Amino acid sequence: MKGRHKNSHAREVALQGLYQAEIGSTPVAEILRFKWLNESLEPEEKTLASELISGVLDHAAALDQVLSAFSNIDFTQISSIVRCIIKMGIYEMRVTGRDPAIVMDDLLNLARRYDGEQAVPFVNGVLDRYRKEMQEAAVKRMTQDES
């Protein structure tokens, strides 16, 4: 996959784990053991993948609301994999403070790989709208703090 960043592999593993949780009956504890992987994870990758899986699942209802608010498509019409990608992106941008451009680049590559090129504009649009609103809110808070 082109455009690999430091955390790209961990994000891909997290996506696979989230997808398992969304479509299957695999318990979260089992997913977080990562025994379903064909390869071992580096400790940092395991930490990030676990953080993303747990964070997205722990905040699923709120993330679903954000996704619905920023999407122009009915929630039920979005594929499971795309829902997982977007929720992971919203969570990561909101909670971790990682560079949104890198997060979005990785997630757009995952959308391309797992759902096809047609998913990329939609994922990009939702995540970019969310990123812009976060930035606008941060600027607004800064200007209020200064006054």
Describe this structure in words.
It is a single chain. By secondary structure, the chain is an all-alpha fold. The chain has a single domain (8-146), classed as NusB-like (N-utilizing Substance Protein B Homolog, Chain A). It has helices at 8-23, 28-31, 43-58, 60-70, 80-96, 100-115, 120-146. The longest helix is centred in the last third of the chain and has 27 residues, at 120-146. The termini are far apart. The model has no long low-confidence stretch (mean pLDDT 91).
Structural class: mainly alpha
Number of strands: 0
Q: Low-confidence parts, pLDDT < 50 over ≥5 residues?
A: none
- The H/E string reads HHHHHHH
Number of domains: 1
| CATH classification, class level | Mainly Alpha
Shape: globular
CATH fold-level topology: N-utilizing Substance Protein B Homolog, Chain A
Helix run count = 7
The portion of residues forming beta strands comes to under 5%
Which helices and strands occur, and which strands form pairs?
Blueprint: H1 8-23, H2 28-31, H3 43-58, H4 60-70, H5 80-96, H6 100-115, H7 120-146
Which keywords apply here?
73% helix; 7 helices; 147 residues; N-utilizing Substance Protein B Homolog, Chain A
What's the short version?
The chain is mainly α.
